[in-house]
Amino acid sequence: MANSTLVPQHWHDLPFGDILQAEIEAALAPWWPRIFGYHLLKVGALSSQINSLQCSIARHFSLFDGHGANIQAEPHYLPVQQHTIDAVVSCFLLEFEQNPYQILREFDRVLISSGYVFIVGFNPVSPVFAGKILPKYQGKLPWNGQFFMPSRVKDWLGLLGYQVLADERLMHHSLLGPVGRQAEHQPWWQKSLANWLPSTGSVYVIVARKLTVPLTPIKDKSKINAPTWSTAPSAGRTGLSKNN
């Protein structure tokens, strides 16, 4: 892990963690009735605490290296058979792993064709990045972790053969000062960012689906020989000869 001693195990380990959790659960709620199957895997301690009771998938399991997990294991190697999971939820997990792409590869290994992955992380192009600049906060959660651009995460998913269905931003706030729970209590600058620069939300929620059919490569047309005209000696006439 990026930091073996300072990794969030509960939502209250993060600043305004209860508000973060509520915002994320609200963003995920519309998706739960839309996915079906037998197994939902929540990877990471924070993911395990996400409310997914409205999900249509029958069985929900949590996996992390800690007390209370249904499966105690490290996320970089999931002790799960391949192609057995219908959906994976990952909340603020990639930020604290040395090899985040390996985590995504493990998700891909265990997911069935057409399976869903829900990835929640901190957006570096947002007010929350201020804590990365200020020495007072650099060693504290969540600023001690790595912040990956949402576009980079989507590129990783694209390499693995996933279609991004949604990319949403939440919490246009630095998390360094008071956070208003209601819109009317939010400062003017926070409302302005949400209205005029929605992509600068401090939290991203990416929903992607595993493609069932790989893309068919297109033949290189430059390697296809064009038909040529040749003279037929016996008849003294021209004929069409194809060289394929």
UniProtKB/TrEMBL annotation:
Metal-binding among keywords: no
**Swiss-Prot/TrEMBL keywords:** Methyltransferase, Transferase
Record-level GO BP terms: methylation
The answer to whether keyword Transferase applies is yes
Methyltransferase type domain: from which residue to which, for each copy? 71-119
Q: Which SUPFAM superfamilies match?
A: S-adenosyl-L-methionine-dependent methyltransferases (SSF53335)
Output the Gene Ontology terms for molecular function.
methyltransferase activity
A Pfam family that the UniProt record links to this protein: Methyltransf_11
Q: What is this protein called?
A: Type 11 methyltransferase
Q: Which organism is it from?
A: Shewanella litoralis
